[in-house]
């Protein structure tokens, strides 16, 4: 076999490799999936609302902590609730839709997208692996949120759009596009359409001209899918799903920073220039191979290259212009990004350049640096929080170190295809080890785990719970009850309300230890001397102190449970 054909798969072998890789990813994603608590802030909100549905609650309007939840449309809640009905109301069931969604993008990209742009089987397989095993996708595969499902839905929609672009003429091919578009909308609302519309713009730029006779019925079909849920939801919520869910959570989020995500400073417009390469690790270094491809020779048909540019660039531009930003927002643009990376790798291999190029050497250096840095990070995570380093952290570090350094050495020798295959194995195994052996023991000492373990002893079922200046939705999930809010009427209002609740029978107030001084300072404002003394004594001797790591703050904190014991 020649050097050029050493890593070549046949089309039949591609299908076998893809489905075996899919099965391996499913196993890697599910391993340890239910062994760590839900992470604040987003996961508990989704899961508590889905659990309420599974228990027979409102299946049209999600509810969290006794209030309507308008942040996302309904599809992720339905899927989580369905998994809970089958597997029980636990973390594994809640995260399973995300785990399957990320694994499912592998066959969609490798079999449905990459071959259409001229990628041979080996590189098509690598493109699918690159999307599914990128760092941000692997993180979302273990999260009970809507983002992994959005990646799957938009990638599936892209497969259908490309079928039409490449010549599918049957009416059901066109209907499937609009049907899938409606389902994608039910995952995350208008933001779900950013990448599909960017791809549609690329199709137009590449010369595709859709039939007007199919656009109208197709649009009605997609709109019908959305309206079948949206109309009952709008009626049941008296229109609040529009005013809050769309105008606030979509429109307002696009023009102003939301919950500290983004800003108006000029450097925020460079956010994704940095965030995307970091989120795409360990695959982003392979984009450096683009410098080895002569201009205009990346793709056999320049129209297809124009399509890919619009697909990625349009998505990138929209999320760059939007004021609120998070690293995973452009994830639906990863399929065209990884197809381009593998096209560059394939074309550079076709050129048969002798020895390592400048790009190869840079790829090798970056991969070796990753191989040396990730083990330090895996161990340092525990050392930094004064925790015993588990064997899983050492195994994860060794996996990344060996795989990335080996891949880096291959790249330095000019064998970037071998390097990519090595990183595929390393990323899948390394992230799987990390999720199953590093994350569970780390979050076993989480604040949410401390609350869960103390529920029966510290929070009996008849106890009414208030929180004071906490950002911990997992309280609602793990205490399995509504966590009441304190009225905040002007300066010091929340402190006064908390002190009054502390003195009520059958009531406790939970807060962070570093917030306790605010309550102590406000005691003298209570008018009743007897109440002041009771509350002061309750603050000096909390009913319970729970210590744990709070992910939203990135540090270990005390949670104090306050209440006068009569």
Short descriptors:
two-stranded antiparallel ribbon, globular, single chain, 3 domains, mainly alpha, four-stranded mixed sheet, 24 helices, 566 residues
Uncertain stretches: none
- Overall tally of domains: 3
Q: Would you list the SSEs in sequence order as H and E?
A: HHEEHHHHHHHHHHHHHHHHHHEHHEHHEE
What does the main sheet amount to?
4 strands, mixed
pLDDT averaged over residues:
90
Task: Estimate what percentage of residues fall within beta strands.
Answer: 5-15%
Q: Report the count of strand segments.
A: 6
Which structural class do you get from the secondary structure elements? mainly alpha
The dominant shape is globular
- Write out the strand line-up for the largest beta sheet, numbering strands in chain order: 3-4-6-5
Q: Radius of gyration in whole Å, from Cα?
A: 26 Å
Helix content: 55-70%
Distinct helical segment count: 24
Distance between the termini: 84 Å
